[in-house]
Structures are given as structure tokens and as C-alpha cells.
Amino acid sequence: MAGLKEKVASFPRVPGVYLMKDARGRVLYVGKAADLRDRVSSYFRAASGDDRLQLPLLMHEVADVEYLQAAGEVDALLMEARLVKDIQPKFNVRLRDDKSYPYLEITRREDFPRVRLTRDPARGSRLFGPFVDARGLRQSLPLIQRVFRFRTCKLDISAHDDRRRFFRPCLLFYIAGCTAPCAARVSKPDYARQIDELIRFLSGKQEILKRDMRARMKRAAQKLDFERAARIRDEIASLDALARRSLYGDYPAGDVLTIDPRDGLREIERLFDLDYTPRTIEGVDVANLAGDEAVGSLVSFVDGRPMKAGYRRFRIRSVRGVDDYAMIREVVERRFERLKEEGGTFPDVLLIDGGAGHLAVALGVLDKLHVRLLLVLGLAKEEELICVAGRTEPVELDRSSPALRLLQHVRDEAHRFARHYHHLLRRKRTFGVDDRLPPRKPRKSRKRKER
Fold it and tell me: What is the pLDDT of residues 47-70, one digit of tens each?
């Protein structure tokens, strides 16, 4: 067992699937992981908190562990399902409850096939699975839908129904989540191509699919059909982003082009020549309306994800009128004075919502307090230029840059949190009600019964 632990300690920290084998080389269990080394190593630690009664039996039989690296967490989920179906390891059943596994079903008998999650598939459907991780499957389906734009509704849609052209599509069409066959916005052959591409993706043929898509994009450009070529280009970019996407991230589900925050942090380290990869980022913003009910916000991100327990909000005390610089100065000063007094941990990166002037104000406060941070940045809206402490010229990154996308997320979250607090205070002042708490229900009077 000691030699096996050493082997597992050398596993890469990447998404993938792992196969636990017995002494005869038979696969006992298949699992997926966002981080292969961490996940597999956990089996060799004390399992006192694990309620799976068969786990000790599994570990007693395990003699070897192999892994297969995946392009991303979604790919690892699909790879796990294919391996469980093909190998049928005995412990994949015994370590779970008696519920049936969910499948991803494509209803091929319809003119415009539907895609759904089911534990009771219909006859004639194309099935993918079973999926051991039902939660991961539910999390990944909207992401996959944003790429292949298939329908998930229960409508009976006929290709010969001319009345479809009078129908209004649902919201999914307008957010590019479905091509709306219900409203005749896509032809039957084009929709069939969408489903065929989805099947190839689910079957693990992503590279072949992208190669064919690039060929179609080239042919469209040669025919001067630049709109179609651009659409295929965006689909390829979405596939690449899907490979990087974390299933359990905190980004809005509607944005399939969101990045793995770990990529963003690593790029920040490289771009700004830091001594190490930052882990904590705090974002600061202010909000007011003509100087009225001015507030500040601070949001905290750890490993690229929001940590709501670290959020703070400030009611501006020292500023009258509209003076964003003074408000930023007050928020930063109050935040870091408090951290110094309490012996708190400073963030690796401080991000100010604003340009060079806002950044200069924050730097002045930190210098006065003798606070040294790994990196202090300013990110203004619209032009999306990054102002960096110690540099005269701002940094302009490609809009698809993981570092820029992560910093935008921090900046936008700070802005949202500040605006929310500002609205709460204005409503409270206008209506005399603190709508952060529900109104109390009046107590019912209790009358004593006469004896």
C-alpha cells in the first residue's frame, strides 16, 4: 500500500478519470476527478467520515490505480460514463444506493429530437450513460446546450406543420441556447446536423468534430458566406471553453465562454511577473446617486471563486457630494486599518473598479498605512484597460484572456454588491422599511377560555 500511495502522489493535478484495479488487473471502480492527485489520494486517508459501507471492501482489494487525463471536467464526466458502461465495475454499483443511474437521452424518432436527463429512457432513443455523478450531469447539460443549441422542451414538433412560423420562440432562443425548431427558425437538415455534432461530442470525438467544423468554416469563407463562417468559428471557441469549464463554478450559467479561474490566476502571475500564483483577490467599488446614500463594497475571491463570507459593505461617512476618489479612499482605508488592528490576512491582489486616478488613490492609502500587497490593479469599464501599480501605461488584454475575464468577474461582482446595498438604503429611506428583512406578522391575541 505504501508503494501505491507514492504512485498516486505523482498523479497530475488535472481533470480525468481513475481506474482502481485488483491484483489480477480487473477494474474494480471507475471515478472522475477535477484534480486526479487530490481525489485519488483521499481514498488512502482515514475514511471515518465516509458513509459508504463498501469503501473498506474496495480498498482491501485495490492493488493498482491508473488514470486517464481529460480535457476538462465535462470531458471527464463523459469519459467516466463511457467507461462504467463498457467495463461495468462491480464497486460502481455497490458504493452507491439502489437508485437507477441517469442517462442522457436523445429522442431520435422525432423530426426535431429532444435531449433530456432520464432514469426511464424510451424505446428507440439514443442513450449516453449511465452517469454515476447525477449532479455533474445536471450541471453540465446547460453548458453543452449553449454550444449545440438543442431543444429540451416537451413540445411535439412536426417538420410539416406550417403554423410553426407564426409561433414565438421561448427565452432559450434569444439567449442562444436553442435554435427554436418550434418557431421554424431552423430547418430539419440543419437541426439534424446539430444533433449529429452533439452525438460525436458525447461519444468522445471532440477533435474529429472540431476538425470537420474548421473545414466547414473554411468552405463557408471561400463562398463569401462570412456570417456562417463566423458562427462556426464561435462554436469552435465555445467547444474549447467548454473543455476548460468547471462544473461547479460560480459564474453565470448563461456565459459558456467563462474560463477556469485557475487559468486566470496563473495568467495573472505570468503577466505581472509575480513571485507566486495569487490565491486571494479583493475587489472594491462605490455607488451613489448624485452623492445620495453613498456606499462602498468589498468582495472577496479565493482561488478565483467568490467567498461570500468575506464580503463587506460600507456606508460612506466622510464624503459629501459626488467624489468617487474620496469614497474609494475611505473604503480602502477602513478596510486595511481594520485588517491591521485585528491581525487579519491581507489579500494577494487588490482590484479597484476604476482607472489610473482611482488606483492612485488606493495606492496612497496603502502607502500611508505601510501595507504591501503582491499586486494592486485598477480596471475601468468600457475600454477594459488594466492599470497596474508601478507602470505608466495600462495593459490591454484580448477579451478572451482568462486573466481579464477573471478580473472582470471580480469587478462586476463588486459593482453588483455596491448597487444592491445602495438600493436597499434608498428604499429604506423612501418607504421607511428595511426590506432586507421580511415584515413581522402581527401576533394573534389569545383569549382565555371561560371556565
Answer: 444 555 567 778 888 889 999 988
Question: Hey, which residues does 128 pair with through a beta bridge?
Answer: 104
Most confident of 79-88, 284-293, 401-410: 401-410
Neighbours of 13 (CB within 10 A): 12
Q: Are 351 and 284 in contact (CB under 8 A)?
A: yes
For 288-309, write each residue's pLDDT tens digit. Answer: 754 456 888 999 998 888 888 8
Positive or negative: CA dihedral 207, 210, 214, 220 = positive
Q: Which helix (H) or strand (E) holds 375?
A: strand 375-379
The full DSSP string for 310-331 is G-EEEE--S--SS-HHHHHHHH
DSSP string, 76-121: HHHHHHHHHHHH--HHHHHTS-SSPPPEEEE-TTSSS-BEEEESSP
Nearest to 21 by CA among 81, 94, 87, 73: 87
The overall average pLDDT reported for the chain is 81
Q: How many CB atoms lie within 10 A of CB 444?
A: 6
Residue 323 CB contacts under 8 Å (≥ 6 apart), including other chains: 291
CATH architecture, range 261-431:
2-Layer Sandwich (3.30)
Query: Counting every residue, how long is the chain?
Result: 451
Q: What residue ranges do the domains of the chain occupy? A: 2-94, 103-244, 261-431
| Nearest-angstrom CA–CA distance, 440 and 15 | 49
Residue 45 CA to residue 66 CA, distance in Å, equals: 18
Which residues neighbour 42 within 8 Å (Cβ) at sequence distance 6 or greater? none
Query: Residue 226's pLDDT is what?
Result: 86
**Is the pLDDT assigned to residue 121 strictly greater than 60?**
yes
Residue 419 contacts by C-beta under 8 Å, 6 or more apart in sequence? Answer: 287
Range scoring the smallest mean pLDDT among 51-60, 77-86, 297-306, 428-437: 428-437
Is residue 262 within a helix (H) or strand (E), and if so which, with residue range? Answer: helix 261-271
CATH number of 2-94: 3.40.1440.10
Nearest Cα to 381, choosing from 404, 353, 361? Answer: 353
